[in-house]
Amino acid sequence: EVQLVESGGGLVQAGGSLRLSCVLSGFTFADYAIAWFRQAPGKEREGVSCYKSADGVTYYQHSVQWRFTMSIDNAKNTVYLQMDSLKPEDTAVYYCAAETTGWGALAARDYDYWGQGTQVTVSS
Known about the structure:
11 strands, 4-stranded antiparallel beta sheet, mainly beta
């Protein structure tokens, strides 16, 4: 059974940093895409960043480019999202997601497996 468990959310002041973690278990596919999404109250879920094994590239949503960094530690089966220079508009529940074609992008419909989410709140 595939499981994704996020952690690391919390309350931070604007300009601060947080690092989210997502531990994957039962996920042993050779081709995959891993992504971070977020959903603010009253808004649709949006893609923040994703890594595609098909091309080995990490992609970012424009609004987080140069502030957020996604990384993968294969030895620990863990995906990270380092978030710097946080803004109040980054406030949302953040989700980790995975799929098994290697081509998943920043669209929620591309992903089959989801974590439960972790709350990030940025105060002004």
